[in-house]
Each structure stands twice: as C-alpha cells, then as structure tokens.
Design brief:
Blueprint lengths: L24 E5 L8 H10 L3 E5 L6 H9 L10 E6 L37 E5 L8 E7 L3 E9 L2 E6 L16 H14 L6 E2 L6 E4 L7 E5 L5 E5 L1 E3 L2 E5 L7 E7 L5 E6 L13 H10 L8 H13 L4 H24 L1
Parallel strand pairs: 1-2, 2-7, 8-15
Antiparallel strand pairs: 3-4, 5-6, 6-7, 9-13, 10-11, 10-14, 12-13, 14-15
C-alpha cells in the first residue's frame, strides 16, 4: 500500500474479506492508517499464522500506529515509535551495524557473496522505543546509531517484522542495492513459512502442519505429483493439534488442502534447486523482461530518480520548448536584418 503518483491507481486503506485468501504475507508500505475492520481483520490474520511486513515512511500517522497498532505491547507493532531521526546532509549517513547475523532470515548475508548490507545508506528513519516484552520481540538488523532497523514480534501463531525506514528510495538507497531483492525474499519467506510445514524437504520425511485447537478432527486432502490423493485427519498430541502425512516416498511437488477450503499449501521433496541461483541477470536481459511486462527499468540511482520524477510530475517539456523559442527568436532577428538590408 505505498503512496502513488498521479498516473497510478489510488492506494487502498481498507482490506476486503477476500484479500486474505491464498495469502501468506501482507506488506504495508508507508500506510497512513487502516480504516474500518482492516485492523482487526489483519490482527486475526497474523494470529492465525499469517505474516506481516511493515515499512514505515513520512505518511505514517505515528500517533495512530502507537495507539492502534502497538496498543501498549498487545498489538501488531513490535515496539512503539518515539519519533523520526535523520542524518544531516553534512554528516555521514547511517548504515547497517556490522556484526555477526544470527536471525534465520538474514543468515545468508554472513557470506560476503550474498551482498554487503553495510553498503546501504539511511538518511531518515523512525526510532523505536525499547520493546516491553523481550520474550516475543527481537532485533533482526540494527543501524550503527544503536537503533533497530528491523524488529520482529511473535503474535499468536504468526509473526510481524517492522522496518524503521521506507520501502522506496525516499529515505534510503536500500531498494537500489543488488541485495535488496534477496533480502525481501528471505524476509517474506520467513514470515510465510512460520508456523507452517517446511516448503522443501527430503524424501523419507513427513509433512506436518500445526493447527488451532478448534481444528481437531478436520480433514485434509494430500495430492502427490502423479495426481493420486489421500485423506488425512488432524490429531492431537498433548496441547498440540496438527495434521501429519505418512513418510513421503517419491520426489516432486505435493499439495495439501483442507476439505471445504480453497487454501492450498505446496511442499517440495528433493526438487532441483538450480533455479534458485541468485547470480544477477545482465542489464539487457532485465530490460527485455521489463519491456515484456510494460514496466520501467533503471540501472542507476540517477536513472531511478529521473524515472520517479516523471511518474510523480510527468515529463519536463519546458527545456525543448525554451530551445525552440530561442531558435525562433534567432531566426526572427536574422529575418529582420535581411529585410533592413534589402
């Protein structure tokens, strides 16, 4: 839900009932506030095992976020927002604190081949207050100003990650870094798979999906790669309710669907992982993909800034018009001189 330019569709601050169907993660980007039932529906979605990624920004109503989303530690926001901070133009920008990363979503970046998170610069950010419950809230990344950049909170069966900066280049050049897409992939994958069965496993293991206590006795259909199906029934062990398959004996993609529901989870066993190669594509190939989908492409910060200005304010026509006017005046002066001589 980012702010949009004049030639983009208007942003929505309300969520419809079907917005959560077949959805694992919801992302809020610089949303001022939620209206109507959106907040309570989103709270239920996360408590039921969904993921929520919140990017802040200049349009955020800080008072509303603290009052309605934080709710003294009982809401979705991992910590209260103290206010906005910035690095002066004459000062060095804030950067990601250099340290050994321990959170599962960012372990990949301990290897320098994954990208240097410290290359991202931050000019503005929100300062989060100290969380009231350290058992459910933890830092994922910090800035070198000793303030959190990414905070995570356990909420019901789901999780929330809040970022102290924007999802676009308004406050930071993070979205322009080559590691931005892998970082977002890992954050959303982590949120999507929390409280659910792993999406990739080895042949011989089982699919086990944790459920609510009210789901005891629910039936599920498991479809194997050949199209064969079997029915599974949820069971209870201690205070845990879950559905579990027999050991998987063949490789491929398996589909698990609750009877009477259109929500399906996919589970891969011994699949080929070569398509997960994160080697970047050449710029010309990215340009072809962008053209095929009628999207814009920028391969540098000045190029992105020019593209953003065009989206927000349209094309600048005054420069060619000024050149044309000067040429016309010059032609008029020459014409007057020839007439005076002749």
């Amino acid at each position: 839900m980012p702010p949009t330019s004049s030639n983009s569709p208007s942003p929505r601050t309300q969520l419809r009932d079907d917005d959560f169907k077949q959805t694992e993660v919801v992302i809020l980007a610089n949303v001022e506030r939620l209206q109507g039932r959106a907040q309570s529906d989103l709270d239920k979605f996360v408590k039921a095992g969904g993921g929520l990624l919140i990017f802040t920004g200049p349009d955020c109503d800080v008072d509303w976020y603290n009052r309605e989303l934080y709710r003294k530690g009982e809401g979705l926001l991992p910590a209260a927002i103290k206010g906005q901070a910035r690095a002066e133009l004459t000062a060095a920008p804030a950067r990601v604190l250099m340290q050994r990363l321990t959170h599962p979503s960012v372990l990949y970046f301990n290897d320098a081949r994954g990208g240097r998170l410290q290359d991202a610069e931050f000019r503005h950010w929100f300062e989060f207050a100290q969380p009231t419950n350290n058992e459910t809230t933890q830092r994922i990344l910090s800035l070198d100003r000793n303030v959190p950049l990414l905070l995570e909170k356990k909420h019901g069966q789901g999780r929330v990650i809040a970022a102290a900066t924007t999802a676009n280049a308004e406050w930071t050049n993070l979205p322009l870094q080559p590691f931005f897409v892998p970082l977002m992939q890992r954050l959303t994958t982590y949120l999507a798979t929390e409280g659910s069965a792993p999406a990739w496993q080895l042949v011989g293991s089982t699919i086990r999906l944790n459920l609510e206590k009210t789901d005891l006795g629910a039936e599920f259909t498991l479809r194997d790669p050949t199209g064969q199906t079997q029915t599974l029934k949820s069971q209870q062990e201690g205070d845990k309710v879950f559905v579990q398959s027999p050991p998987i004996a063949q490789p491929g993609i398996f589909q698990l669907q609750r009877v009477g529901s259109d929500k399906t989870s996919f589970h891969a066993f011994n699949t080929d992982n070569t398509e997960s190669d994160l080697k970047p594509l050449p710029a010309d190939q990215i340009k072809k993909i962008a053209d095929r989908h009628e999207a814009s492409f920028a391969d540098s910060l000045p190029g992105y800034q020019a593209l953003d200005r065009t989206r927000r304010h349209g094309s600048e026509l005054w420069q060619p018009l000024l050149i044309a006017l000067l040429a016309l005046l010059f032609f008029e002066v020459l014409l007057q001189q020839r007439i005076a001589k002749g």
